[in-house]
Amino acid sequence: MITLVYSLSIFTLLLCLGSVLAAALRRTPDSCRAFDAAWVGALLLFAADWVLAQAPPFGNMRHVLAFFPLVMVPAAHYLRRFRGLELTAWLAGASALALVGALCMPLQAGWRQMPALQSPWFVPHVTAYVISYGLMTVAAMLTLASYRRGQLLAAAGEMVRLSLPFMTFGLWSGALWADAAWGGYWAWDIKEAWSLLTWCIYLIYLHVERYPAFAGWRRPLLLLGFAAVVVTFLVVNLMPKIESMHSYAQ
Fold first, then answer.
1. Which domain holds residue 147?
2. Same structural domain for residues 155 and 172?
3. Angle between helical axes of 122-145 and 152-182 (0-180°, round to 10)
């Protein structure tokens, strides 16, 4: 099963890279087909990880990074259909980076959930956050691209509006989960604090974008929000000296 997981990871990575290459050769339909095939590969990888871990595969950073293509492909379809934006190559490249990160992390066969994780909130909480972080990654990419194509900034804001309900649900469900597991809704754990800060930044953005007088704040807030996502998702988990109740995900 370990060999299958590695094989599916590499297969999905190659499909993402193939999508990028096809786009570079101006073969857009082939790029889209390759990225769609990568979604199928990522789904098979998710299923194989579930069998290998003997639990829902959200228990560590490798699991979560391998899940990212499952978010990026629908985002590419959404932007193409509703915004007329062809960003398959960019999102395929982001998916490839996530898969490279996943391949650099060790596999854990027969991963056992600690008692606090044996909760009905586990899967919906983590899934909501992974979806929101994936969409915020798309928003950040659109924000950077908007420095050259200003109309992309509106699409970045739309990604935030799609993402924030998932992030809100993740924050809310995490509080309910914490109360059930540890007897309190909030403990100001470092990951909790950064999650709240990230949510607040994006909430401020949604209010700021409504007023033309604050138009100059839109890009800085979007990039600041994504920087907070990176700290929450990567830095807090990967820094060994940072103590957190979420250290199981390292």
1. 113-250
2. yes
3. 160
